[in-house]
Design brief:
With 348 residues, the protein is an alpha/beta fold. The protein is built from 17 helices and ten strands. The chain has two domains: 177 residues, Rossmann fold (3-Layer(aba) Sandwich); 159 residues, Rossmann fold, CATH 3.40.50.300. Bound molecules: shikimate-3-phosphate. The site of shikimate-3-phosphate has 11 residues, from loops.
């Protein structure tokens, strides 16, 4: 049966991102059937994709592609589907890919890199002339559509350029398999996680909420310090923000995997990557402590935050829609007393 806990897994992205080969590996790992939309069109029409483009034109090809995707998604058995690079141009397909019964992963890479991998293949007539220019144009035209449908984004280029292809594809398939498993557990873990920017009061509120629920409180900053003997700020200075964010994500995932229901104060950065958003999605309650920029500036200045690195205010802004996408509730902290905010978090 297909439902939000057993969704279809749909890989989207431009030609050359490895949707078919990586999709096959994901299907093997999850013991799910696999389908490639181009192969299905060819089997169904008895013609190659190139022939369909040449004889019927692109609009008819898009219609066939949309019909194939509709049928694959209507099937009762959860399937890993590698969608043709242009599948997202069709509005009805995008609507299907946004449903909770489909988990859509967008594979990305730079057009020049993709052109070196994708050009010259029989089923890609669009890339016959100047593949770099064509893929650059398609990347721009389709960017917003990929963003609209994808719950997770995987950049394939670093793995594919740094190690032999079989190992790189296996690593990418492992990553996507892990994402699928997190997505299947959506809202099944009985934790309450507080998310939001630095200065919103996650630790103070978290402790009050934990006390009221008689649950342990797990604070990201404290965990980072306990594990490394260093503050978040020291780690960021020595190893860079990216290294700190990786550690904060590990802390979140370890906290979520605890059996005892807890209240978890997560790091502000955990929403940046889709793996972090998927991890948060496993918690039953994700409360976003929302504060406006002025409030945050005042609070950060007032209470010494010497244990945390300073984060640019534009980063704080960029994270707002990401918090919104993972939150099951939002509490506006404004100038409210911590007890009042805790009440609201508990009522949400
Ligand atoms: C297309 C991508 C191709 C194939 C057709 C059109 C596109 O699939 O469906 O040539 O519009 O991007 P791949 O993504 O498997 O190359």
């Amino acid at each position: 049966m297909v439902d939000a806990a057993h969704p279809h897994v749909v890989l989207v992205g431009l030609s050359g991102t490895g949707k078919t080969s990586i999709g096959r590996l994901v299907a093997q790992r999850l013991d799910m059937p696999f389908a490639d939309t181009d192969d299905t069109i060819e089997a169904r029409t008895g013609r190659t994709v190139r022939e369909v483009f040449a004889e019927d034109g692109e609009p008819l090809f898009r219609k066939l592609e949309a019909d194939v995707i509709a049928e694959l998604i209507a099937a009762q058995e959860p399937t890993v589907i590698a969608a043709g690079g242009g599948a997202v141009v069709t509005p009805a397909t995008r609507e299907r890919l946004r449903m909770p019964e489909t988990f859509c992963v967008w594979l990305t890479a730079e057009p020049a890199f993709l052109a070196s991998r994708a050009a010259g293949k029989a089923h890609r007539p669009l890339l016959d002339d100047d593949p770099v220019a064509t893929l650059t144009r398609l990347a721009t035209e389709r960017q917003a559509w990929f963003e609209e449908v994808a719950e997770a984004v995987v950049s394939v280029q670093p793995a594919l350029t740094s190690e032999p292809k079989p190992q790189a594809k296996a690593r990418l398939a492992d990553l996507i398999t892990d994402m699928v498993q997190m997505r299947r557990r959506r809202h099944t873990l009985d934790h309450l996680v507080l998310v939001g920017p630095m200065g919103a009061g996650k630790s103070t509120i978290g402790e009050i909420v934990a006390k009221r629920l008689d649950r342990p409180y797990i604070d990201s900053d404290d965990e980072v310090e306990r594990r490394t003997g260093r503050t978040a700020r020291q780690i960021a200075a020595a190893e860079g923000l990216a290294a700190l964010h990786r550690l904060e994500l590990t802390v979140l995932r370890d906290s979520l995997s605890k059996e005892t229901p807890a209240v978890i104060g997560s790091a502000a950065s955990v929403v940046d990557e889709s793996t972090g958003r998927l991890a948060l999605g496993m918690a039953r309650h994700v409360v976003w402590l929302h504060a406006d920029a002025e409030h945050l500036a005042r609070r950060t200045a007032a209470s010494g935050h010497e244990h945390r690195p300073i984060v640019d205010s534009s980063v704080v802004q960029q994270r707002e829609p990401l918090y919104r996408s993972v939150a099951t509730a939002m509490v506006d902290v404004d100038d409210l007393a911590p007890e009042v905010i805790a009440d609201k978090a508990l009522a949400s």
